[in-house]
Write a structure and sequence with these properties.
The chain has 263 residues and is α/β, with parallel strands linked by helices. The protein has one domain (2-259): Carbon-nitrogen hydrolase (Nitrilase/N-carbamoyl-D-aminoacid amidohydrolase, 4-Layer Sandwich), CATH 3.60.110.10. The chain is built from 6 helices and 16 strands. A 6-stranded mixed β-sheet has the order 5-4-3-2-1-14. It has a 6-stranded mixed β-sheet with strand order 6-7-8-9-12-13, covered by helices on one side. The longest helix has 13 residues, at 63-75.
């Protein structure tokens, strides 16, 4: 199957402009699965809870979910994309999985980073895996990468590909995904953004370098750190079914959960 990421400079609070960037970038490229950045439609650096409330959307009735479903119909593909979700009285840093038939699934970010803790509730849904036909995919968002339990849980649930919408500002993730993929024998698509946001007294610079990583930890493609870019890679998703490291070692059956105890 053909999998890709969309890396671009997100404009804070300008949803239509961000939609236009996505449409323009994939206009002449085909993929079965596209991954977009975290909070791709709104930008990241909120300055108040009211701002989050005003920009967040309900799923699946919100405009961003409907936009991506329509785009899926046009391009015959699946999208994984990050957005701020409004659910009852809570706000979540979420990601959706959609295709031409509609909403497939929702993941709410479990491991919140830095100022996100002011604006969002921790994710209340367990890690899940969805069958999109050609492969089974799991989703984690940005800072989830630093917790090995996230990728391992998705692997144990049967994920072939980990889709990883991100707004990365620390320099470690791309290299760490090499280990995450190797230790779990899965593919990963980390879709980061570029540019910076300065709002109030705070400024963040996003690191780009979106990356597609293979089951042996090989970097199949890494984008530039500061350029708008998309890239598609042909993968054999069936490789993720093979969890053998040697003839006598399997990363799942060799596990000894009874020994993984701590106080």
């Amino acid at each position: 199957m053909r999998v890709g990421f969309i890396q671009f400079n997100v404009f804070f609070g300008q949803k239509e402009k961000n939609y236009e960037s996505v449409e323009r970038l994939i206009k002449n490229e085909k993929a079965d699965l596209w991954v977009l950045p975290e909070l791709f439609n709104t930008g990241y650096l909120f300055v108040s809870k009211n701002e989050v409330i005003n920009l967040a959307e309900e799923i699946p009735t919100g405009e961003t979910t409907r936009f991506l479903i329509d785009l899926s119909k046009k391009h015959s593909c699946t999208f994984v994309a990050g957005l701020a979700e409004k659910y009852n009285k809570d706000m979540y840093n979420s990601a959706i999985v959609v295709n031409k038939n509609g909403l497939i699934g929702i993941y709410r970010k479990i491991h919140l980073f830095e100022q996100e803790k002011k604006w969002f509730a921790p994710g209340d849904l367990p890690f899940q895996v969805w069958d999109i036909g050609a492969a089974k995919i799991g989703v984690m968002i940005c800072f989830d990468w630093i917790f090995p339990e996230a990728a391992r849980t998705l692997t144990l649930l049967g994920a072939d590909i980990i889709c990883h919408p991100s707004n990365l500002v620390l320099p470690y993730c791309q290299n760490a995904m090499v280990t995450r993929c190797l230790e779990n024998r899965v593919f990963a698509i980390t879709a980061n953004r570029i540019g910076s946001e300065k709002r109030g007294e705070n400024e963040l610079i996003f690191t780009g370098a979106s990356q597609i990583t293979g089951t042996n930890g090989e970097i199949l493609y890494r984008a530039a750190t500061d350029q708008e870019q998309i890239h598609v890679v042909d993968i054999n998703q069936q490789l993720a079914k093979n969890k053998n490291i040697t003839e006598n070692n399997n990363i799942l059956t060799d596990r000894q959960p009874q020994m993984y105890q701590w106080n």
